[in-house]
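User: Could you check the structure of this?
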Amino acid sequence: MILQIQNLSKTYGNGVVALKKVNLTINNGLFGLLGPNGAGKSTLMRTIATLQEPDSGHADFNGLNVQKQKQEIRKVLGYLPQSFGLYPDVTAEQLLNHIALLKGITDKKIRKSHVMQLLDQTNLLGLRKRKLKHFSGGMKQRFGIAQALMGDPQLLIVDEPTAGLDPEERNRFHNLLSDLSEKVVVILSTHIVDDIRQLCSNLAILHQGEILFSGTAEDAIKQAHGKIWQQIIPKNRAAELDENHQVVRTRLSAGKMIVNVWSKKQAEGFQRVSPDLEDIYFATVKGYLKAA
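Assistant: Sure, the predicted structure tokens are below.
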């Protein structure tokens, strides 16, 4: 199975350019789409999910044109949007049963078995009789995952899926996605670098509507080898470093500031460190890696 995206562009009526000639080829497995909020990730996901039209370009999944064959795409699509609404006065089991009917699962026994399996996979089996208005944020997110998996999709799109999940639920979801990706195309769209690091061997970095990097994490890290330097400084020196160095990222630890900078040669007072995916992400978004 393969998803091919060619020259997708989208500009909204208010002038915001959401996508700029996006090109991607995504094969079986877990593919990570990484970018900050407002990068265009949700626009790209909604376009692939047949929910909005691009201004130009197209996407094809296994020979089906996403823009021209929407109903055929929807038959093989599972989609978890970043935000979604639920009918508050029905139970999780009732709504999943209804979604199964809409997906064309008409046999009652098969439908019930599929619903129970999904509730179990998403750790909601014991809550199946509870009305959705009484669900917590994490429970609602797990329900969203369950409905996205209805009908055994061949193309699964999940947009910021771990939002609201506690560490145990997040780990369960990671394992579920890993299992599914052996047979289908799974696109994980997120701004959480750790999700991509744990799950995806292939990824793209999207920023201001443009793909800045596409490939493996290993390829990206190789490009940054020898260019990430680190120093631990007092917090009051942070502004000074911003003026004199290409700061990749900073983080606080025990009252001190750990600073990673980008430089082709040793920066005074810094020690070279091995780059990780978080360094790659910030260096790419800030333009350092692209200019290397």
